Amino acid sequence: MSATGIGAAVRRKEDHRFITGQGRYTDDINRPGQTYAYFLRSPHAHATLNRIDAKAAATMPGVLGIYTGEDLAADKIGGLICGWMIHNKDGSPMRAGSHPALAQGKVRYVGDHVAVVVAETLAQARDAAEAISVDYGVLPAVVDTASAASSKTQVHAESADNTVFNWHLGDKAATEKAFKAAKHVTKLDLVNNRLVPNPMEPRAAVGDYDQGEGAFTLYTTSQNPHVARLVLSAFIGIAPENKLRVVAPDVGGGFGSKIFIYAEETVCVWAAKKVGRPVKWTSDRTEAFLSDAHGRDHVTHAELATDADGKMIGMRVKTTANLGAYLSTFSSSVPTYLYAPLLSGQYDIPAIYCEVDAVYTNTAPVDAYRGAGRPEATFVVERLVEIAARELGKDPAKFRMQNYIKKFPHQTPVIMMYDTGNYAASMKKALEIIDYKGLAKRKRDSARNGKLRGIGFSSYIEACGIAPSAAVGSLGAGVGLWESAEVRVNPVGTVEVLTGSHSHGQGHETTFAQLVSDRLGIPIENVSIIHGDTDKVQMGMGTYGSRSGAVGMSAIAKAVDKVIAKGKKVAAYVLEADEADIDFKDGNFHVKGTDKTLDFGSCALQAYIAHKFNGQDLEPGLKEGAFYDPTNFTFPAGVHICEVEIDPETGITRIERWAAVDDFGIVINPMIVEGQVHGGIAQGVGQALLEGARYNQDGQLVTASFMDYCMPRADDLPSFDVGMTVTPCPSNPLGIKGCGEAGAIASPPAVINAITDALGHEEVTMPATPQVVWRAAQKSIKRMAAE
Amino acid sequence: MYAFTYHRPATARQAAGLLAKKEDAKLLAGGHTLLPTMKQRLASPTHLVDLGGCADLRGIERKGRNVVIGAMTTHAEVADSAVVREAIPSLAYLASHIGDPHVRHRGTIGGSVANNDPAADYPAALMALGATIVTNKRKLTAEEFFTGLYETALEEGEIVVRISFPLVSKAGYAKFRNPASRYALVGVFVAKRGSEVSVAVTGAGEGGVFRWPEAEAALKARFAAKSLDGIKHTAKGINADMHADAEYRAHLIGVMAREAVARATGK
Amino acid sequence: MATVSLTVNGKAVTANVDPRTLLVQLLRENLRLTGTHVGCDTSQCGACVVHLDGKAVKSCTTLALSVDGATVTTIEGLAVNGVLHPMQEAFREHHGLQCGYCTPGMIMAAVDMVSRRGHSLDEATIRDDLDGNICRCTGYHNIVKAIAAGAEAMGKAATPTRKAAE
């Protein structure tokens, strides 16, 4: 392994600009003549829009334009879309309510977009927005996930019972049979709490229109600028793709929330033509809380059947998923195909049946948030398995190992074909790291100090590297999920790699360069990674679902291999040898069995000057592109173990130890991969202990700032012990599985299993705040006193 | 923010003059409550009188049996003050746990006291220590000064100039932070002067800071954390929100009181 | 409009601003120093932290006119003559950043932490003192490591200078 090659902890190339304040985020971009947009948002969760009177506001200082849903409709600007069709149990399509970028006739959640004011300054836009008079016909709000379908209030005319779809997966009859044969059935009711993604950079957009060219440019905080262009062009109808450029510059974190195509960027780019000047909008944090797509929000009943030997023989799950007021871009896929196919976990369970009802409510749209469906599935599986072990009187680690899948490939009863893995290896390593043998003593020590100590396991699996296009197409996806890359070699041998993957914290500028430098045998400084601009990169599907390594880098590897193949042809002419006799190794082309070599840079130069070959026989130049479509999902898996100590007096839970052992297949840069694990765990711990979005019964978001929505801070978290095991992924040329979401998927059940172990009962909800844990601890103390 | 006219007087007297003269004027101290409120357009003063230039409102002094702190003294200055740390270490401790380091560099004792946020720390200290609030017009005890949620006895044109803390033999502060905002969910300041004991509670009361007579009586008998065993604060009149209902908050008052006494007694 | 004069990153600057202009707006919009970020409305996230007369403050909660005559250092002013500050170097070396958005505020807070709490910072101290800065990417693990290393490096870097001054 070289100092900068695959497997090396190369320090990040992108860091210099970030640590010196030279990053370029969307809000840092200012266009000449720029104006500012302010969105008038609904203060009501549910109301008819009887009348919007903007006459007085329009005459206020600095106002350039005030637009409503009627103006968008008049310009034939289409509504926002949901790109994944889910079918009901009876085969009928899901009921998708219309989703105009600016409300038409009705508002459906607090923060819904009523009108936009474009003005010379932001303050002027805001002043004018306050002067718009809106006559709302306030309606009752549907807020609660579990009861939305039985509410008398209807969110969308398209769905009488507020149901988006009733969907299912698995073999119902086989599962019923398994439960009939069961020796023991473990039952669990749980709520997967609603979260607000909160990347530190709020969303922003700058729309620009070039009258001469008749072309739009949108600078926006996007994880997938090409997808944004596709949707804005083909579905919303802003402009044809060749007249619409989308730039996603440095993006300050996404975690899913910046995948989606929102109202604000749609309106900004459209309004730029209306006012004839660039239009900028930057979300403040309160707007982010109100209008960024939220995550999770499931209510679930689940059961696990085991036989007399403690072997898992069946699982059934019934979930209600809250999708909010409108279907966001990929919302329908999250509680369905990103959820139920993961319910087998790491276990050999012959029969699984899952039903999911998705509902509309008068709350912000819910869509993918780090893990997307897989954390929800893992929480169901790992809470069930932990409780089953406790009920059966088995050691939770041994019970898991007894039921692990041991032979690969393994076909689960819920779509997935696991390609490879070694789950017991991760468990054994994690048990060592956490010092499982010393737990009993640590528990006694805590008890002596009046504290309660507990340990919690989570054996998670995820399906990443999304995804084979034909497979997802058959499941309802509206797009293919390949990735594209182009490798441009300059005449001096430096390389520009254009990729459809977007980097917003993942360190692609480093890891992608490591791959290319390693394969081409050239210094890493000679490789530049270009992404985030539809005018530069031809195509791309973007970054989510831990796909940039497995899919994005595979596309790059494929393009690099094409460059090498072309280089061999050039070298054959230059070295006057047969192409079949040319080898490429360590940055040199050489003729087998001779000392004749041509280094990569010289080969590039020869390719461009084209003196040594006939341009009719071989095209000059050295530039290759590739699309890579994966053959399967990838299946990162691992074991996280959390150890907590609870102060029953205050209810404070301290995480004392954390062992994470993950199998991500081949790792390009362990430093970056560990960083992804740390960050993922922190978000999962946030879900388990701190974070929860709450609406009151009127549909007001009561956690709309960092004053009430608890973000994990440094003193809420421990340092993490991160280990790895490796089974290379057979489904892509690099053996990569993906690491971006693992921590967030693994960690919530590990925390809750630890807390419930400490408390000795299962009645703890997320977030397990001090108040929740204190109350649960009082119950434990009472029970202990009774015993 | 809505538009306003900005004033930066050099003395408290000038500030008082502006406050009296200008219609709908508001004082700006450290700004860590007022500016976010103005940013959200929930406050809209026509005139903003910035006290940051009033050197006469700053400083910490030991005056006989008192520590006197100027209203514009920052939390960081109180926390780091050798005078405060020697004379009333619990007050320095309290100041060092307000907000975060950056907030402590700007936030001031006068601003905190005049705002009387029910979750602020200082009101508990002022009440338990028996501090005197000196304004440009008069002197008030803490009990007279804090009149309710965000309410004080300050009248039109009145400015907090300094706060005088009498020395005590023992004192301690403990707070349970709101996990999200980091304000006091419950904060308890205990102080012992001669045979007198006072226990003041912030963060928990529906009407803002209050004293806890039962705990005071128990501690008067014997100033030790153990004296509070079995004494519970009622949940009546206690705040409830999504972070803590009244029962939990009431329970935390007892826990924090014991911790504060333990700190005061060095145990 | 009103005039404010101050020193930013060693340069005297004067700007004509609306009184409601915040220090962060003065920096970002008037001076185009966009390294200082805004991540919340409630003075909690710390993305906007700069040094005001040598002390870390939240520039989103400070009026521009309030800092007339003061000295401000932003992330852009931390490196001297192109040489990275030891804390910047430590964040890079220890992978203390991912998306980079909270990073300028984190680094400015970290430098301030060292000036208040010294060069030998243990994990508990760093975590406790970092409660005015929120990061969503790193889980803080590597930020804590970076600050400990940066603090130590600042000590080493400062020693010769101090001796020379004595």
Molecular shape of chain C: globular
Sketch the major β-sheet of chain B: 5 strands, antiparallel
Number of helices of chain C: 5
Q: Compute the number of structural domains of chain C.
A: 2
Topology-level CATH name of the largest domain in chain C = Ubiquitin-like (UB roll)
Average residue-wise pLDDT of chain C: 94
User: Could you name the CATH class of the largest domain in chain C?
Assistant: Alpha Beta
Extract low-pLDDT stretches of chain C. Answer: 161-166
Bin the strand percentage of chain B.
15-25%
- The strand count of chain C comes to 5
| Whole-number tally of structural domains of chain B | 3
Strands of the largest sheet of chain B, in order across it? 4-5-10-6-7
CATH architectural type of the largest domain in chain B: 2-Layer Sandwich
Helix/strand class of chain C: alpha+beta
Distance linking N and C termini of chain B: 48 Å
The overall pLDDT average of chain B reads 96
Question: Which structural category do the helix and sheet elements of chain B fall into?
Answer: alpha+beta
Description:
The complex is a heterotrimer of chains A (787), B (267) and C (166). Chain A is an alpha+beta fold and 787 residues long. Chain A has three domains: 18-139 and 200-253 and 258-291, Aldehyde Oxidoreductase, domain 3 (Alpha-Beta Complex); 298-466 and 632-786, Aldehyde oxidase/xanthine dehydrogenase, molybdopterin binding domain (Aldehyde Oxidoreductase, domain 4), CATH 3.30.365.10; 482-628, Aldehyde Oxidoreductase, domain 4, CATH 3.30.365.10. Chain A has a seven-stranded mixed sheet with strand order 3-5-1-12-9-10-11, with helices on both faces. In chain A, strands 7-15-14-13-8 form a five-stranded mixed sheet, with helices on both faces. Chain B folds into three domains: 5-53, Uridine Diphospho-n-acetylenolpyruvylglucosamine Reductase, domain 2, CATH 3.30.43.10; 55-166, 2-Layer Sandwich (Uridine Diphospho-n-acetylenolpyruvylglucosamine Reductase, domain 3), CATH 3.30.465.10; 170-264, CO dehydrogenase flavoprotein, C-terminal domain (Enolase-like, domain 1). Helix content of chain B is 33%, strand content 25%. Chain B has a five-stranded antiparallel sheet. The longest helix of chain B is centred in the last third of the chain and has 19 residues, at 246-264. The model of chain B has no long low-confidence stretch (mean pLDDT 96). Chain C has 166 residues and is α+β, with helices and mostly antiparallel strands. Chain C has two domains: 2-77, Ubiquitin-like (UB roll); 86-160, [2Fe-2S]-binding domain (DNA polymerase, domain 1). In chain C, 38% of the residues lie in helices and 15% in strands. In chain C, strands 2-1-5-3-4 form a five-stranded mixed sheet, with helices on both faces. The longest helix of chain C has 25 residues, at 141-165. Chain C is globular, with a radius of gyration of 16 Å. Classes of the chains: A alpha+beta (787), B alpha+beta (267), C alpha+beta (166).
